[in-house]
Write a structure and sequence with these properties.
The protein is of the alpha+beta class. The chain has three helices and seven strands. The chain has a seven-stranded antiparallel beta sheet with strand order 1-7-6-5-4-3-2. A hairpin with a 2-residue loop joins strand 6 and strand 7. The longest helix is centred in the C-terminal third of the chain and has 26 residues.
Length: 168
C-alpha cells in the first residue's frame, strides 16, 4: 500500500482519554459521508469490539438500522493511548481490495495530537462504486475531508465531556 491520507488534529485531553473517546464513542463522533458508505443500508452506528485479554480478535463494526452487523475490519493493533490499526473495507470490496487505518495518539502539552493515516485506496479500481469514478487524488481528498470532520467532532466531544486540563 503506497497511497495514503494523513489528517492530524489536537484534542483537549490526554492520550489515554483520546484513545478511549476514539474507540468507545466512535458511534457518537463519527462523521458519516455519502461518498464512503460501508453498505447499501448505511449509515448505521460504528462501534469497536476490542481485542480480548490475550490481545487477539477485536473488530470495527457498523450496526445497521435493521439490526444487522457489518464488519468493517479486524483490529490489527490496539495499544491504548498510543496506537490503533484496523482494516477498513466496504461491503462491495473484492478480495484484492483493502484499505487500512492507523491512528496514533501523541501528547503535546495538555493536548493530544490524534493522527489518522488511511492507506490503500490504490487497491480499489477507479471505476469501483466505492471510488465513484474519482481519480486516486480526489478519492484521497474526499476521505481526508471525512476524517477531518470526524476528528473535529472528536475534539468537540472531548471538550464537552472531559474536565479542562492544565498545561503540563
Amino acid at each position: 500500500m503506497t497511497s495514503r491520507v494523513v489528517v492530524s488534529l489536537r484534542v483537549p485531553c490526554s492520550p489515554d482519554e483520546a484513545f478511549a473517546l476514539f474507540t468507545e464513542e466512535i458511534g457518537v463522533w463519527w462523521a458519516d459521508s455519502a461518498f464512503f458508505r460501508f453498505t447499501p443500508r448505511s449509515p448505521g452506528t460504528l462501534a469497536f469490539e476490542p481485542p480480548g485479554a490475550d490481545g487477539e480478535g477485536g473488530r470495527l463494526i457498523e450496526r445497521l438500522p435493521g439490526g444487522k452487523v457489518f464488519e468493517i475490519g479486524p483490529v490489527r493493533a490496539w495499544a491504548p493511548g498510543e496506537r490503533l490499526v484496523v482494516g477498513w473495507r466496504h461491503a462491495s470490496f473484492g478480495p484484492g481490495h483493502a484499505t487500512e487505518v492507523e491512528v496514533t495518539f501523541e501528547r503535546v502539552g495538555a493536548e493530544t495530537r490524534v493522527s489518522v493515516e488511511h492507506r490503500g485506496w490504490e487497491s480499489v479500481p477507479q471505476d469501483h462504486v466505492a471510488r465513484h469514478g474519482f481519480p486516486l487524488q480526489l478519492t484521497n481528498q474526499r476521505q481526508g475531508e471525512q476524517w477531518r470532520a470526524g476528528l473535529e467532532r472528536l475534539s468537540q466531544r472531548a471538550a464537552e465531556t472531559l474536565p479542562p486540563r492544565l498545561p503540563d
